[in-house]
Write a structure and sequence with these properties.
Helix content: 10-25%
Number of domains: 2
Subcellular location: Cytoplasm
GO molecular function, one term: diaminopimelate epimerase activity
GO biological process, one term: lysine biosynthetic process via diaminopimelate
Bound molecules: ligand LBFN2T5F
GO cellular component, one term: cytosol
Order of helices and strands: EEHEEEHEEEEEEEHEEEHEEEEH
CATH architecture of the largest domain: Roll
Radius of gyration: 18 Å
CATH class of the largest domain: Alpha Beta
InterPro entries: DAP_epimerase_AS (IPR018510), DAP_epimerase_DapF (IPR001653)
Length: 288
């Protein structure tokens, strides 16, 4: 029987981003892609991201987190999921700060209120090998999505950045005027992104307000994506569309993002516990 069977988990959301947190700090089990897909497909444990807490690897950190998308692939960063992990690890304690680790590095979390947390998402990376891109953008229109007339691409010239995971942000007047379910997978799998990418449609409404709709790599349309909110803010600030701090409004709620002068990006927002449950052993028989 899988060591995950009957294991307790927390079903949460961060600004509507569906998150499952599971505590494997006392287990050596590493969740397989098939197990992640089985959990995502089960009633009561559907997620956009599964945050598996493992024993810490680095002194001073609380846990090493493996992050799984719905399709079983792994991600380096998940801002909304990290806030949910911070809730699990601090709820019922008097602690308000903790350090966690993901494949992308160390993340400092802070409790701001009963269900509100900030995460230091680290430094953005803009180098094409870091994002990664297949090659350097020599032409800002290197990515064009051609659905309509040949001389009128529907989307082009995104900002590209790594926030521990790859992001492309397309600037539009109204994100919701586009068919993201159709264009998201085409752009996620564009050959310019060797590791695929998270695809955002962003509209700057004011120097401190961005509207954002995200197609997540490996998960599809989500109600919120914390790392995409960070990607949008740093890209907007870098191109003088906004200042260095803004509210980013997503379908599931608002996140506040600040790009500090020390180059770190701080993302703040809500967490919500929906229920705690136990994995059904039958799930893992099917996945094996
Ligand atoms: N929802 C997350 C980001 C999820 C990871 C992404 N799908 C990837 O594969 O990079 C967030 O809140 O940051």
């Amino acid at each position: 029987m899988s060591p995950l069977a009957n294991h307790p988990f927390w079903k949460m959301n961060g600004a509507g981003n569906e998150i499952v947190v599971v505590d494997l700090r006392r287990s050596s089990h590493v969740i397989s892609a098939a197990e992640a897909r089985a959990i995502a497909g089960a009633e009561g444990s559907h997620f956009d991201q599964l945050m598996a807490m493992h024993a810490p690897r680095t002194p001073g950190t609380e846990t090493f987190i493996r992050i799984y998308n719905t399709d079983g692939s792994e991600a380096g960063a998940c801002g909304n999921g990290t806030r949910c992990v911070a809730w699990v690890l601090t709820e019922g304690t008097d602690r308000d700060r903790l350090l966690v680790e993901t494949k992308a590095g160390l993340l400092a979390c802070r409790r701001l209120g009963p269900a509100s947390f900030s995460v230091d998402m680290g430094e953005p990376k803009f180098g094409w090998q870091d994002i990664p891109l297949a090659e350097e953008f020599r032409d800002t229109r290197a990515i064009e999505l051609q659905i309509g007339p040949i001389d009128a691409p529907v989307l082009h010239s995104p900002s590209v950045v790594s926030m521990g995971n790859p992001h492309a942000v397309f600037w539009v007047d109204d994100p919701y005027a586009h068919d993201l379910a159709k264009i998201g997978p085409m752009l996620e799998n564009h050959p310019i992104f060797p590791d695929r990418a998270n695809i955002s449609l962003a509209a700057v409404k004011a120097p401190d307000h961005i509207i954002l709709w995200v197609w997540e790599r490996g998960a599809g349309i989500t109600r919120a994506c914390g790392s995409a909110a960070c990607a949008a803010l740093v890209s907007a600030a870098r191109t003088k569309r906004t200042g260095r701090s803004a509210t980013v409004s997503l379908p599931g709620g608002d996140l506040v993002v600040e790009w500090r002068d020390d180059n770190h990006v701080i993302m703040s927002g809500p967490t919500e516990l929906e229920h705690a449950g136990e994995f059904d052993p039958a799930l893992f028989q099917a996945a094996a």
